Amino acid sequence: MDMNQKRIRNFCIIAHIDHGKSTLADRLLEATGTVTEREIAEQMLDSMDLERERGITIKLTAVRLNYRASDGEEYVLNLIDTPGHVDFSYEVSRSLAACEGALLVIDATQGVEAQTLANLYLALEHDLEIIPVINKIDLPSADPERVKREIEETIGIDSSEAILASAKTGEGIDRILEAIVTRIPCPKGDPEARLQALIFDSHYDSYRGAVAYVRVFNGTLQVGDQIQMMSSVSQYEVTELAVLRPAMTPVGRLLPGEVGCVMASMKNVKDTRVGDTITHAQRPAPEPLPGYHPAKPMVYCGLYPVDNEQYVELREALEKLQLNDAALTFEAETSAALGFGFRCGFLGLLHMEIVQERIEREFGLNIIATAPSVVYRITQTDQAEILIDNPALFPPVAKIGKIAEPYVTATIMLPEQYVGPVMELCQERSGDFSNMEYITPERVRLEYEMPLSEILMDFFDKLKSRTKGYASLDYEFSDYRESDLVRLDILLNGKPVDALSCIVHSDKAAERGRSLARKLRELIPRQQFEVPIQAAIGTRVVARETVRALRKDVLAKCYGGDVSRKRKLLEKQKEGKKRMKSLGSVDVPQEAFMAILKVE
Amino acid sequence: MLGVYVHIPFCLRKCGYCDFHSTAAAPPVIEAYLQALANEIEFWARQTAGELCSTLYIGGGTPTILTPGQLDRILTKLAAAFNFEPGFEFTVEANPGTLTPEKAQALAQAGANRISLGAQAFDDGLLQKIGRAHTVGQIHESVGLIRKAGIDNINLDLIEGLPGQSLDQWQAALAQAVQLKPSHFSCYSLILEENTPFYQAYQEGELTLPPEEETAAMFAYTQEYLPQQGYCQYEISNYAKPGREARHNLIYWQTYSYLGLGSGAHGYYRQIRYSSTEDLGRYIRSWRKHEPAYASWEPVTADQAMDEMMFLGLRLVKGVNLNSFYQRFQCSVHEVYGAEVDRLAARGLIEEREGFLRLTKLGRSLGNLVFSAFVRPPLRS
Fold it and tell me: How far apart are CA A388 and CA A380, in angstroms?
């Protein structure tokens, strides 16, 4: 093996949201002199605004660190970032596949969380060397001994090897770097073999086209090479290769074990699917690296422009986002209430929220999002099976034979004293208990089989509020199960609004209808005319509420000194209205379409 | 058309609902203020260089808190500094309880021909509750003094929808007010402005206001009753005997120009909206040295000017003159706001009559739905 290859270490950081992954990454970059403290003022790895605001990582990247270890040798450490959220577990899995080891970061004040565990299991599946890091030990409430016990119980790793650290103060950073060098194996692979390079991420750059982030496993990739994507027949010529330090630095070739990015005039990220293997067109590898499958949307919602004239702009925005986000799907749909829009598919709720926010922020479009829906599998009375991702398209009751809905296995980690309330919550949400395990005497791992639709209904917030924020949740698709479901319709002013329809379990339908009508009465502002709200199942009206008409709304005074100020007031009123959709003569605010998620 | 507004930011005490710029100040401060104001008057007299002025309005605060000598001095200075057209409207705001026979004489002698009296209510309990420093008896007294000084053009300010006020009480107040035979009424619905004690109390649940249905009924009653008594409604909150409409206020609603003099005053001159500092100390220090002391200075774009002509003009019962709009901007209201006009008309909020676009009766109650439609947010840079 090449001497250089022996001095490469590829690793990632696994952590729950807020456990300090980004700060730790910053410290590693700093300690290796990759960037200076000043440059790090903004957290380096999370480059999207949204990520920074929400403190989460959505798109991953890779950074190359040069480190002189205590053995006097110079090492190349590739830090491959992983997204922390369950929606992106496929991406996590791909970035783990590019590594030989992982830092498992656990908050010394919080302990092991559900998502940490989910990602850790993925890491173990990929046979990674795990280095536990107990972070935030500078905090007064830190309890590293308890966390160590949890590590032993849940993971079965010898916790005496855990490194106590504080990314904030820098304590333990040296030991982490040394552990990366001594405990994580160097990459294997033969530079003369046929090329196999795993795409673990990609992004779209308006100048370069799609940029693929790869880890070379075998062979040598050079500028000018004719390459081929093994899941398709697409061939390209490599125009540029680079490593990230963290700025893109051109290199002539990438050898086994190396991590870098490939540019080859590829049109969009669909040409660089995450999980795909790049090989040489002339001398292809016999088979791809294991594990490519396209990410499948789990959650759908309708996105409509508030102003119908912005339909084309919305489509362009979705197309642009898709360049960067292969998991986002969309197709045109129409709604009697909302006009022309798109049915969009997402990996999960967070993915959905992120896309919505990006459309509004980056493209300046006002959009209405309908409540998210799962994909129902309906067997009609004529035995035909159809998939429905939009409540409005539900067939008439007479045509429905059986309905099945997606179930997930939900894993909840929580302090022992909240087990009661959480089990109650899960049962209210049609959860089937499957397992309960004491990790330590204080912490419990609960497992439920639940309809995904119930998770979408504000489950996470409810979970947090019943456990004072201490519970964490992870879920993955398990199977389709038959359920007794009906469509709940909402009528405004006596007219059904298709975009407000939702699918609910029939035993809860009437109750949900009542809460939804009440919620809508709160959300729909008073306007010129009275607005009757009805909730109906089929032809049966289960709830009725009224938004009273506005009787008086006029600025009583406006003189010379008031003009600018009054103008601002009016602008504010208008701005509020811009975020509403006019359905006939009723102005309905955006939040109303999401109201079903917030009902009790 | 050019109006002149002068602000006297002093009051005996501050009312619970008032967010106007005013303070209870000591006599030496008032004197220093008037000297500074005299310098600002000279400055603007030079700026306008003999331009014809149509109206003069002294507002506050409480201008009648000044001594007769001070009133005479400042009003005489103003009348001499600007080139007012013959018979120009010259209004002074007055509060009952601050007006004496000497002050009324001083106002008349300096040329004031219109007094706007802050009556507000005709119930001593209510007047006390809202923090007014006067009684119903003093309202009658003040009207008498004004008439005696020879001024017959009198406006009464009234507030509808005061805390604890019922429709009956409002009707009684109007009836009493009409007996005083003023020439003009301004009837405002109480608005809770932020940074007032009322707003604070309301937020804390210590103040109950009549329900919207009740204030809507008061507004409806006013619009019905005052015209029966010979006062024609010409603006959302304003009613006048024929020919007695407030010419100065019409300047605001028709977006003509006006100067704003004094601390906290706003002006609109040569397409610029500006305001003077509300910081009395700064105002006095600057103008003592003949240096302007402005707080804001904003050129009005053509789009903004159009919007303002619409949402201010629509306050007038006769509405916006479509031809004037075209003359001024070289494009029609329909070209600029076509879709909004159609939508609002379809909802019965506005109508076009004889070359004017105006609010319907319903539109006058829901004016904000109309006004906000004519406000276009400034382009983002």
Answer: 12
Chain A to chain B Cβ contacts (< 8 Å): 97
User: Average pLDDT over chain B, rounded to whole?
Assistant: 94
8 Å CB contact between A401 and A383: yes
Q: How far apart are alpha carbons A8 and A5 in whole angstroms?
A: 5
What's the CA gap between B177 and A549, in Å, rounded? 32
Count other Cβ atoms within 10 Å, centred on residue A364: 11
pLDDT at res. B20:
83
Domain ranges of chain B: 2-252, 306-372
Residue A465 is which amino acid?
S
**A82: alpha, beta or left? (left if phi > 0; alpha if psi -120 to 50):** beta
What single-letter DSSP state applies at residue A113?
-
DSSP secondary structure string for all residues of A380-421: ETTS-EEEE--GGGPPPGGGEEEEEEEEEEEEEEEEGGGHHH
Mutation target for A interface from B375, B376, B379, B380: give the one with most A CBs within 10 A: B375
Inter-axis angle of helices B27-48 and B68-81, to 10 degrees? Answer: 10
| pLDDT at position A59 | 46
β-sheet bridge partners, residue B7: B59
Sheet holding B320-321, edge to edge: B320-321, B356-359, B350-353
The predicted model scores a pTM of 0.72
* Phi, psi (deg, nearest 5) at residue A459: -60, -40
Contact check, Cβ <8 Å, B188/A556? yes
DSSP letter, residue B380: P
Q: Which of A107, A84, A82 is nearest to A165 (CA)?
A: A107
Spatial CA neighbour of A469 closest among A520, A415, A505: A415
CATH of domain B306-372: 1.10.10.920
Tokens of A10: 């590829």
Q: Is B237 on the interface with A (CB under 8 A)?
A: yes
Residues A558, B216: C-beta atoms closer than 8 Å: no
CATH for B2-252, options being 3.90.420.10, 3.20.20.70, 3.40.50.300, 3.40.910.10: 3.20.20.70
Confidence class for position A579, pLDDT limits 50, 70, 90: confident
What residue type is B343 in one-letter code? R
Distance from CA of A326 to the nearest CA of B (A): 32
| CA–CA distance, A545 with A168 (Å, rounded to integer) | 53
Q: How far is CA A90 from CA A83, A85, A270, A293, A532, in A?
A: 10, 10, 16, 9, 45
Q: Is the pLDDT of residue A253 over 90?
A: yes
With contacts defined as CB-CB under 8 Å, which chain B residues touch A554? Answer: 189, 236, 364-368
pLDDT, one tens digit per residue, over A464-516 is: 889 887 888 888 889 999 999 999 999 999 999 999 999 999 998 999 999 99
Question: Contact A325/A83 with Cβ under 8 angstroms?
Answer: no
Report the largest interatomic distance among the alpha carbons of chain B, rounded to a whole angstrom: 59
The residues, ordered by sequence, that sit 6+ positions from A493 with a Cβ below 8 Å of its Cβ are: A529, A531, A532, A584, A585, A586
3-state SS class at B330: coil
CB-CB under 8 Å, B264 with A557: no
